[in-house]
Specification:
about 475 residues; alpha+beta; five-stranded antiparallel sheet; four-stranded antiparallel sheet; 14 strands; about 35% helix; Serine hydrolase; hydrolase; hydrolase activity
Length: about 475
């Protein structure tokens, strides 16, 4: 009997050891997604935002995420400027690498050297002077009534990290969460999509692209019918699953594919182009590759330093957005769907740029009428989405699907939004000359809606 117990125990140990070995050699894809996600978020916040890696892991990755993420451990290598992440210290092999100019990239193939090639040396953008009024400087011209609204925690929402209100081109109120300041670069997530649409608009202004241009796949491929405008309005017809809680098209692209654009370009056509609206980060990554290649003039342009620097040189520098970075993936595709970091005031500068119809300091950077076209409802979206990667509604909160969540807040009819994962938003109200930025770490399950803040600010500036 004793020998049988020993043999049984030995068998259990061997099976357990085999399972551990299998996890180490071939971990489930979901664990690989989690490890690369953790490495990427920590890398960006350490090397772009200057935060502590372990604090980022705890606050940004583990606290709001899946319970299994509490078993994730990260190692930050300051000398090599890399971050490695593993579950239980040996599962997942997450890796991210920082590059000057293009921030951090997840390297799911483990090739840090390849990912590190895609970089550039940014030209200096001088930081805004605290003694010069916004937007040229950072001086606030406070409206006490608006500042009092930002001080209300219920309006600011849980997890708020940065807020700014711009009225008639002046910074009239701002507030920052504990541990964050006006100098803290913050991730905009899908607000980056609107920036990508504007960068495509700049190539249209240069005559290198047009909204009705197609042919982005080989002749004879049905996907070659997809136009630039359809990619920009989420109406391409390409199959796409934007879910974030599992291994979906979105999470695979962001955390398992070193070449995000190449992955998305392989997806099949599911609907006739223009016939159905389907929110797609993959479509915006393809849009980004298109404007990158247009700027460079050939298919190799996506990996050139001159093209990688395009957002910095053509958009951020003229607007004085000294903190802004759009990150590139491990093959040099600028991730126009998801990965732009900027301070709260620099996000506000971009919002003000849209409010001013693509004009800054008297110079036009976008085609006349392009910004108004961005706001026009995408026909297949049921009124929810604009033709230029903007939202016609604010965040849904608990509003039933299919209903306009802005209705009960009685917002001005011309309000439109930039929105990003975990509570990022910029509301733009042309009729009130108003831009309201709200950034933070606020998961959707908390049902926070910035519309209440915007409605209160609108009333305050009208008095």
């Amino acid at each position: 009997m004793a020998s049988k117990i020993v043999l049984a125990a030995a068998a259990v140990v061997l099976i357990a050891a085999g399972g551990v070995a299998t996890l180490a050699v071939k971990p489930p894809e979901l664990l690989r997604v989690g490890a690369n996600y953790g490495a990427k978020i920590v890398c960006s916040n350490v090397f772009i935002a200057g935060r502590d890696g372990q604090a980022v892991l705890a606050d940004d990755v583990q606290a709001p995420g899946h319970p299994v993420l509490k078993y994730l451990k990260v190692q930050v290598d300051q000398q090599r400027q890399t971050v490695r992440a593993q579950f239980f210290g040996f599962v997942g092999d997450g890796l991210a690498v920082f590059r000057p100019g293009t921030g951090c990239a997840a390297a799911p193939d483990g090739d840090a050297a390849q990912a590190a090639q895609y970089k550039f040396n940014p030209i200096k953008i001088w930081g805004p002077s605290p003694n010069v009024p916004w937007p040229t400087g950072s001086m606030e011209e406070t409206n006490p009534a608006v500042q009092a609204l930002l001080a209300q925690d219920a309006l600011a929402g849980p997890g708020m990290r940065g807020m700014a209100v711009i009225h008639r081109g002046r910074l009239v109120a701002q507030r920052y969460g504990a541990g964050f300041t006006a100098a803290s670069p913050l991730l905009g997530w899908s607000m980056t999509k609107t920036v990508s649409a504007v960068l495509a608009g700049m190539q249209i202004a240069d005559g290198r692209l047009s909204l009705q241009q197609s042919g982005f796949w080989p002749a004879g491929d049905q996907r070659a019918q997809i136009t630039l405008a359809q990619l920009m309005s989420m109406s391409s017809g390409l199959r796409w699953n934007e879910g974030y809680g599992d291994v979906s098209d979105a999470t695979r692209m962001l955390y398992l594919e070193p070449d995000m654009a190449a992955f998305t370009a392989t997806l099949p056509l599911e609907q006739a182009p223009g016939s159905k609206w389907n929110y797609s980060s993959g479509g915006t990554v393809l849009l980004s590759r298109i404007w990158q290649r247009a700027a460079g003039g050939d298919a190799r342009a996506a990996v050139s330093a001159a093209v990688l620097s395009l957002p910095h040189d053509r958009l951020f520098a003229p607007l004085g957005m000294s903190s802004a970075v759009i990150e590139a993936d491990a093959r040099g595709n600028l991730v126009g769907s998801s990965y732009m970091y900027a301070t709260t005031q620099d996000w506000a500068r971009f919002g003000q740029f849209l409010l001013q119809d693509g004009v800054w300091q008297g110079k036009r950077y976008l085609p006349d009428g392009f910004v108004s076209g961005m706001q026009q409802v995408a026909p297949a979206s049921g009124g929810a989405y604009g033709q230029g990667s903007v939202w016609r509604y604010g965040p849904s909160g608990a509003t039933p699907e299919g209903q306009n969540p802005d209705t009960r807040f009685q917002l001005p009819a011309d309000t439109y939004w930039m929105e990003g994962h975990d509570g990022q938003s910029i509301a733009i109200v042309p009729s009130q000359q108003l831009v309201v930025v709200r950034l933070g770490l606020t998961p959707h399950r908390l049902l926070y809606q910035p519309q209440a803040l915007l409605a209160a600010v609108v009333k305050a500036v009208q008095q």
